[in-house]
Write a structure and sequence with these properties.
Elements: E1 5-8, E2 14-17, H1 20-25, E3 46-48, E4 54-57, E5 65-70, E6 73-81, E7 87-90, H2 91-97, E8 102-103, E9 109-118, E10 121-131, E11 141-144, E12 152-156, E13 161-165, E14 177-179, E15 181-184, E16 191-199, E17 202-208, E18 216-218, H3 220-223, E19 233-240, E20 244-252, E21 257-259, E22 262-264, E23 268-271, E24 282-284, H4 286-289, E25 293-297, E26 302-306, E27 319-321, E28 324-327, E29 337-342, H5 347-350, E30 358-362, E31 365-366, H6 372-379, E32 384-391, E33 394-401, E34 403-406
Parallel strand pairs: 6-11, 7-10, 17-24, 18-23
Antiparallel strand pairs: 1-2, 3-10, 4-13, 5-6, 5-9, 7-11, 8-9, 9-10, 12-13, 12-25, 14-26, 15-16, 16-17, 16-21, 18-24, 19-20, 20-23, 21-22, 25-26, 27-34, 28-29, 29-30, 30-31, 30-32, 32-33
């Protein structure tokens, strides 16, 4: 049934688009060949924070975001990301600040920033990557972990806080304090951070990404040998700025996933191809990481995962779906829902729903008038639901059951 379109952003994360307008933004010139000379990315020349540290609220929602002051102006809404460059600014934010962009490397532009204030922490004298229009309307920039390399960074997504402080973590103990593993990055300018995991009895490194709304993910190359209970099932498409639309497949791990002392019971795994310049890697996204208070000690390459107990995290339920994806209208109440993907073998597929059909109504209600809560209520139904579709000017009604797609 209709779901948000998921778009991998420039930082190898996943952010939600709320309309086809976001798809239009993906038509920007390809970034696939863009590189950046690491020498042009200055880390903060000076980082100051009170002895007690500083704690700031995270904006509620899927993506951890904080309010920051840039060069004394703001506040600006910045995503907090483990996989981004040190600092990224929307071009609109850069222009509002009056920063002078310059070209660095092949295509990317950068700008010098005098100061960034996050609560009572101040970063001075650094370089930001300037990004044109691909971060989303509510995002002014991205604060990457590498900008905070001199600090302990603790993110508690469930509590809605981020704490910055001086200090160091205790030595790795294989339980809740683990080595941070550098994963090759992109643009030739930075690396990503990961941890070692056990996935169904095999060992691997998983990149930590706060901005991916999903839980566990992997690349098609690694999925080919992953211990899945059944072959991955294509359940939709994702739009990417580097690759266009690609299939999103999901499978259940045939066994548990272990991170230090913690166990995830038989997780569902997203299998999505990444751009060529991104590493083939497992990923742990926000749906997993929000179970922990996560402290990063980049100087000593350590991470602490704190949780009230080490009891296993329950397996997610089976995926149920009517069997089609439809893009929402550009504005509330305006424009049709167009079917973008039909899951092979699903109730929608068997009923003859096809890509390009227009969803007119759902359960007797105009499709364009349904808000997120309305779609959520439909997704929770286990009985048959009536949908009306239009194709080539003719309308027809079909009854679809919310069936199990991935067990």
């Amino acid at each position: 049934m209709p779901r948000p379109i998921i778009i991998p952003a420039l930082t190898a994360t996943f952010v939600l688009a709320t309309s086809p307008a976001a798809h239009a933004q993906m038509q920007a010139p390809s970034l696939a060949r863009r590189t950046l000379d690491p020498a042009t990315l200055r880390p903060p020349a000076r980082t100051t924070v009170p002895a007690r540290g500083t704690t700031v609220p995270l904006t509620p929602g899927m993506r951890p975001m904080v309010d920051v002051m840039v060069n004394g102006q703001g506040p600006f809404h910045f995503m907090v990301e483990t996989t981004g460059a040190a600092l990224e600014l929307n071009s609109a934010t850069r222009d509002r600040l009056g920063l002078r962009p310059r070209t660095a490397g092949t295509h990317l532009t950068v700008a010098d920033v005098d100061s960034i204030r996050i609560g009572d922490a101040v970063l001075e004298g650094m370089t930001a990557v300037s990004v044109d229009g691909l971060l989303g309307g509510d995002v002014d920039g991205i604060l990457g972990l590498s900008a905070l390399a001199d600090l302990l960074v603790t993110v508690e997504a469930a509590a809605g806080t981020m704490t910055l402080a001086k200090g160091a973590l205790p030595a790795a103990n294989g339980r809740n304090v683990l080595p941070l593993v550098p994963v090759p990055g992109y643009w030739g300018a930075n690396h990503l951070w990961g941890v070692e995991i056990g996935a169904g009895g095999t060992r691997a490194v998983a990149t930590l990404t706060l901005q991916s709304p999903g839980g566990v993910g992997t690349s098609p190359a690694l999925a080919a040998t992953a211990p899945f209970a059944a072959a991955p099932v294509a359940i939709g498409r994702v739009l990417t700025p580097l690759q266009g639309a690609v299939d999103r497949r999901v499978a259940r791990l045939d066994g548990d996933l272990r991170i230090g002392a913690y166990t995830l019971r038989r997780p569902l795994v997203n299998v999505i191809p990444g751009p060529a310049q991104f590493p083939a890697s497992w990923t742990l996204g926000a749906a997993v990481l929000r179970n922990f208070a996560i402290t990063f000690d980049q100087k000593n390459r350590l991470v602490r995962l704190a949780r009230a107990d080490t009891s296993p995290i329950a397996a997610p339920p089976a995926i149920r779906d009517f069997g089609f994806d439809a893009s929402p209208p550009r504005t509330p109440g305006g424009g049709p829902y167009a079917v973008r993907f039909v899951i092979p073998g699903s109730p929608a597929d068997r009923a003859g729903v096809r890509e390009g059909d227009v969803l007119v109504s759902a359960d007797g209600r105009d499709a364009a008038s349904l808000d997120r809560s309305g779609w959520a209520a439909l997704a929770a139904r286990t009985d048959a639901v009536s949908f009306r579709f239009r194709r080539d000017g003719a309308e027809r009604e079909v009854s679809l059951t919310n069936a199990i797609i991935v067990q």
